[in-house]
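tool_log.txt
---
The assistant was asked to compare two proteins side by side. It first ran the structure predictor on the initial sequence, then on the second. Raw inputs and outputs are pasted verbatim so the downstream comparison step can read them without reformatting.
(1)
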Amino acid sequence: MAAARLAGRARAEDEDLLVPPPSPGREEPINTTRDANRFMFPSITSWWRHLNKGKAVTVIVLVYVNLINYMDRSTVAGMLEKIKQDKNFNITQDKYLGLLQTAFVACYMLFAPVFGYLGDRHSRKWLLAIGISFWSLSTLIGSFMHNFWLFLMFRALVGIGEASYSVVAPAIISDLFAKDQRSSVLALFYFAIPVGTGLGYIVGSEVAGATDDWRWGLRVTPIMGALAVFMIIFIMQDPERGAADGSKLKPTSPISDLKSLVRNKSYVFATIAFTCVCYVAGALMWWGPNFAFVGAKAACGNKANCGDITLANVSFKFGIVMTLSGLLGVPAGSYISQIIRHQVPNADPIVCAVTLLVSVPILFFGFVTANYSLSLCYGLTFFAGLLLNANWSIVSDMTMYIVIPTRRGVATATQIL
């Protein structure tokens, strides 16, 4: 398509660069392959020449960190059975495993507003570098703990570090891009959530199985985090707040920010709805593999080869399902919304509402069928995940365009609450 469009308006100098001039007094034979290709290469070189390298590198860094962010969260979820069986922890009930996620979320929620406030006023580059360093070190040190309560404490500290990133990164993207371009980049950014979640299941369960020690599964993301800190400090851009929108507004007091957000009905309703989505996605991420495993074991009963059904195997397949649903769901939701919004002004909330409503019965029956067919459970969970993932980038995009640049950090932080 790009080649066809360029064919009608290619410049003479572009052709001169690719096709040697004919010899005087001699007709050149027609070469259709050359004629087709000579317009493709100018389009690629033109794209590369006009590409803002600084912005592109910044987006790559942010997507990479978002990927390992969600990898770290789901790594523990993929190893819950091994953690429960650790003799040093002496875990007798599943509620203690749930406490790991509760402690993480509690710190994540408490510190998100702090980083939101700082992100609207101070260097976001250094906030990210410090936050990711703190989260990576907490994960690494926690992997050496042989006391459950100390391990719980370090998992809670991980929530503090991850709050810094989740609040600040979308605001940086919003200050780099505007309108449909911002929507596309946010889709790429949130594309890393389901993919990172799926990779977390896979990496955690596989590394734990390969080393016969679940603790090694937690030591992968800190190494990746160290690389992320290096890239943030040396190659990532931190644009002026409101640069993409041409805004010159100055930050106001926290009380003024909160009052303004409360009066913004679109923001309030989007936040309430997004809270429900996060609740479902969090429960699905943390308990999904375990639920499917228990259902599959119950369905198998005393049949032959029931011993082949393991939580590690289920976590691996569940990770693939979540990854694929994210690969398709996030860009599909953003793409559909961008097409419709030019004809329907409130297309974004409509797309979110429809996908969420349709996902409810599919997810419900997906886990009910775990007692009868694990394959059917995976299939329905995939479609439910596809619909849930369609919302991530759209909700963030709505938040960015209904909130002024100097309040976007606080708005994202409040939405996390």
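(2)
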Amino acid sequence: VLRPFRPRPHEAWGHPRDSGGSPRRSAPSVVATPRFSGKRHAAVVPNALAGVAGASGSGGVLELVTLVARALAAALAAAFAAFLASAWRKKTSKDAHRPRIRAPASPRMRSLLAATPALHRAIDAPLLLQSSAMQLLAYLLKQRLDPPERFERETISTPDGGEIAVDWHGDADALPTDAPVVAVMHTLTGTARDFASFARCATERGFRVAVLLRRGHLGRPLKTPRFNLLGNAEDLDLHVAAVKKKYPRARKLFAYAESAGTGLAVRYAGEKGSSCAFDAMTMVCPGYDTTEGGAFSRFEPFLDAHLLKSVKNTFLFGANEQTWQTWSANEAAEKRCPSFDDLANTVTMAEFQRLAYGAEGFASLEEYHYATNPMGTVLEIETPTLVINADDDPVCTPSNVDDNAFCFDGACARALVRTPIGTHCCFYEGNTLVP
């Protein structure tokens, strides 16, 4: 409480001396001097705060905690209500999630697009999965909670002593021997388990699913000190040969690839041209250019750190570490390429990829990019190819698509579908987590 300053009569301004004749004291520099009353102050401040100050004991602390908890609960409830309202507006809007199709001039591709109704309707994402973050969270939960599918492994030895494999979806045993085969090319650190729901849905529709496992993805130590972030076209030749040998009467052979797997599929199809083994391909969330400044440099920072940790655990650490230590002391030292320690100490995926050329079997970074960058052969693809990218993808970002949209121009065999939602390889729809 502020009390107004009221000077006594003998101290009033304008009187040079007080009543005793002594010179008057100088007038104060402020008109009013604040005088606080503890009693009135305690009445103004909430009892909880007064309790913290010691006026009402430990009970005030509990009151403060309760007050803050209620405020937080109210704020969270308001935020969730706003989230639900926004999600409902998006879900009920007919055009909120409608894909945009970039069709080439090719009559064949246009007819294929016209015959695929799912590409022309809006994505019906679940109410709570109307954002990239929520779809990614659902993806992570689904990977943990999805019931495992039965896969039967066919291991393949490579000429240099390495090991790759084909994981066949077990539930496809009842399909006829001429059923079409879908060859799946997995993500950066993927396994067959990542495609459990995909395999289940594809099998129900009459497709036989074969997940093509690259080096280091078999769940056991590497046979040789070599891995491939984006795969290897020569290894893919061995995969394709194994698929055709097991089911030579299959009517069609299709390729389905996600994320890093698309780099291998595109590179392979471009190198093969008209002799490509696949009858058609679907590429989901490709990163396009993988050279310096390209896809590996554009990951969202948090996801970049997560991917880097996964890559190191998959290819370098654990049971593989001794293999790489031996390689570093011999082959890497002889070829003067980055060692195991150099790779282990990297802090971004771009840096890891830049230093991994020796571990992938190349003499230089330039040679590595020349042999693996999918954009180096994309214009030579003659196989009908559908590419799907999401505008909210934090891994294979929209800028990747914008920078390489030229590969869908002209009378080519490639078509692009861009969706407003779907994040990275999710695209969940309906009331369940079905992509």
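---
observation on (2): The chain is about 35% helix and 10% strand. The longest strand covers residues 151-157.
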